[in-house]
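re: ur question from the group chat, yeah i did fold both. here u go
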Amino acid sequence: MKKKNFAFISSDLITGNIEEADKLLMNEISRRYNLIKINPNEILLRMGKNKLSLFMNGKKINKIDFALVRRTRGAEEKVYEIAKFLEKTGVKVLDNSNLLLSALSKQNAILDRYEKFNTPDTYYCNSFKSLEKFLMENKIIYPIIIKPHKGYKGEGIIKIDSKKNLIEFAKLFFRKKKENLFFQEYINIKHEYRVFVIGDIALGVVEKISRKGMIAKNYALGAEFIQIKKPKVEKLAESLCKKLKANFSGVDIIEDERGKLYILECNRSPQFIGFRNATGIKVEEKIIAYFSKKGLF
């Protein structure tokens, strides 16, 4: 039986810096399907005469059956356009273009979940003037946490402990960048968890232990992941992913000193090496096997 064609789409194919998790995913895809690696910079889309065609490096790709979207950083719009185009040709794309659009910024992601899920108080402002006027009329509790608008692996997270420091930071920020300033209330975290969810089924929970002196508890920044049993945390992550109709996600949940749980992040395309090492679960196999059973692949 002829193997079907499975496209792997990632902005990392532009630079050639492929994450270990993505190497495992591509190996698993190759084991089951014909793997087509799609570099967003090498694609031309043709639309017209009631026909849609995709070309890579000048050559037409006649048939793609399925597509998996991983990293989009630095090529978000291109990847979204490719995913939308493939969907129009009947290709089953994960994540679908609606989820890709939602994940373009932290603001979009939080708006999708704020109604039913407990999230730290979060602020967005698009100019220094809007922030300055807000601070004149309103009080916020310090410290706060500033995060990049399009964060990755815990990079660029800063703790601000006063109004004066926030104003000084914001002045420099808006002088250098043309994007929203994003900050959240600081929560005294007792425990932080990562739940890996496929569909709406949790594979398990790990507790994240940060490296000394670090705010972010990301594996890439040296955090330790320890497998634990936490049914309430699993259930919360599953409920979130079901609401978002996410295909697979890395859900970060924090617990304060009173035992209250907050959704911190729902990562659309999570790296999973830390989770895999802590649990022994071959996540790449679970991802493809799950979707095969669901009839998508």
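okk and heres the other one u asked abt
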Amino acid sequence: MLKLSYLNIRRAFQTVNFLLARVAGYRKDSSEAWAMIALPLSLAAVLVNSGRFMSIQPHSTLQQLLDKLETEVSAASVHGLWCGRLAAGDDYGSNDWWRYTLRVVGQEGDVQENLLSALKAVANFTDQHLQQDSFEFEPWLPAENVACSLRVSALSEWCQGFIEGLSAVLGKRLMAAPDDIKELLRDLLDIGEVDPDVAGDEEDEKQLLELTEFVKIAALNIWHEFANQHSVAAEEKTKPTLH
């Protein structure tokens, strides 16, 4: 059985209704976003496969790109890292974003331009998916036909990446977060330490599903807390002043 003795799932899920209500106010129609996202993600797939067709599956697309870089860092970890930085209000188009990403995956030297372009396309997909259709957002994990233990491990790595990305951008400002946000961050840290050694029975699958849903809602709530503040602050700076 998936052992989470140090994480009070019941307490965590008591906040879900509150979080859903909070997130609901930010939901936007995603039809236009999907139309814009499809082309760059298809391009990323083409670049990875040298023109061969592949079905678009975000986790596997990102994993194939990382495999090209010969890194041991997982797609779940990188997606978590990117979502954490986006949640902190960071811009995936900045040079600092890519310096940090490449350092994490052990690629501080030159990277092939077509491979970097493909990574940027997938990062764009991540950004648009998070902003345009909150309820469709999901942590990128291996497919359901992959062993439960590997998916548990991936969820753990996603949470670790999310916290790392958030902390890298916000630093000590996290200490000023509201208490409910700090509690969610502690929960994500706990999930990041979950033992992936599970049997993969029906109960394990049920708990993994519940944890994944909780991580999704927690990440969205954190994103709205920090990224929204960053957006408001940026708008205030650009407002004309009266003389």
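fwiw on the second one: Residues 5-55, 232-238 have pLDDT under 50 and may be disordered. The CA atoms of residues 188 and 215 lie 7 Å apart. idk if thats what u expected
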